[in-house]
Specification:
heterodimer, A: 9 helices, 0% strand, B: D-Maltodextrin-Binding Protein, domain 2, 10-stranded mixed β-sheet, two-stranded antiparallel ribbon
Amino acid sequence: MVTAGDPRLVQIVALSLRVSLSAAFIASAIGLPLGALIAVTPFRGRRAVIVILNALMGLPPVVVGLLVYLLLSRAGPLGAFGILFTPAAMVVAQVILIAPIVTALARQIVADGWEEYREQLQSLGATRARLVATLLWDLRHSLFTVLLAGFGRAAAEVGAVMIVGGNIDGVTRVMTTAIALETSKGDLPLALALGLILIVIVLALNAGAYAVKETAQRRYG
Amino acid sequence: MVILRWMGLAGALMLPLGAVHADNVFITVASTTSTEQSGLFAHLLPSFEKVSGVQVRVVALGTGQALDLARRGDADVVFVHAKSAEEKFLAEGHGVKRYPVMYNDFVLVGPKVDPAHIAGGKDIVAAFQKIRATQAPFVSRGDRSGTHIAELDLWQSAGIDIGAEKGVWYRDTGQGMGPALNTASSMNAYILTDRGTWLAFRNRGDLAILVQGDRRLFNQYGVMLVNPATHPAVKKEMGQRFIDWLVSSEGQKAIASYRVNGEQAFFPDAEQPGV
């Protein structure tokens, strides 16, 4: 299974990337603007919100998996959609898991940037939406790392996708659940080999993203 | 612009997820880790999928969890091995009918040095009593699986109230068969396992089969359609078709032909079930 180009392995790797990249993009679409908005808007209870957000970064995947399972189960409120044990359910669980991470990290980065550019931006008299968009754009290179952190957490977790995906062969089996299964079978060398592949893939993706970021920074400043 | 391009990429990534959902010719089977991890399903399912065109998606859990999953309507068929729990499931109105499919047996494995001196015996109850008497390390599944239920029944037959008498020698792991075997292997402990998972298990360390062949180690598997009257989302035609195939001569032959390391792992008995 570990030999390069094994169709089963390719399928598992592809599903891992599809699910976790989808989750990272969706969580960023929610978390980046939300984090920026919290950073530039003073409101009552903001400190409490920040503390809660930071705490949610440590959400245990198993708990998220259980909550999403109860939501998506046929007996649950969203059961009628029938998406339990599908990749879509895995994306939902991972979005819930990493959205707080993306939001909290984005808030911190934007808050620091806001300190720096505050006078400049305020003198332009921009609306809050405009402000958020400008800060997100100016800080995009730093925020890109946030997206990668979200992806990394999503790709590495096993507890949530195991529960809501069910580790079904050819349908919802991803790298981490495959590793858990091979460990269960006592095939530790194969489990370890799969683990190495996961690390190499995440490493390659991060290296690629870093290179893209560097190039963009040099070209556009 | 960059953001727009990203959105496009995100969209492209999401599309296939929808497509998987739209493809509806499949059933979900809640089954046990023993059938999945021994490789039986990988052997059986392609034959059924070929004749029926129905994809079978197996979620492998312990028997107790598999039945709970079905109680919530999250599976179309359950394929498990704990008759008392299955009959309770039927009595509650969650299942339609129980079909005996096949059996395998449990074996007691343990370290070759055998501190409780039980190797080669055929009396499983006597072996359990010796383990208790010597307080030799014993690993329990502890997860309400069929194997765990069978283990608890054996302690009871041995006249031991394990809930009250267990000490540090009795390790309650709350895990599937494979992880529990990994634990037993690293601790050199005794453990009750189904033969199929043991045959397929690679990380044996110093463990070997010590007690086998007792009639009380018999392990009957049953299959049930989840009751569509209680759970309207159940795909009853396709689910029943899978059950009918399992108990047909074709399905029974497929079960009998499965080998793990050259040994037959499951014995079809839909015609003359033991239990």
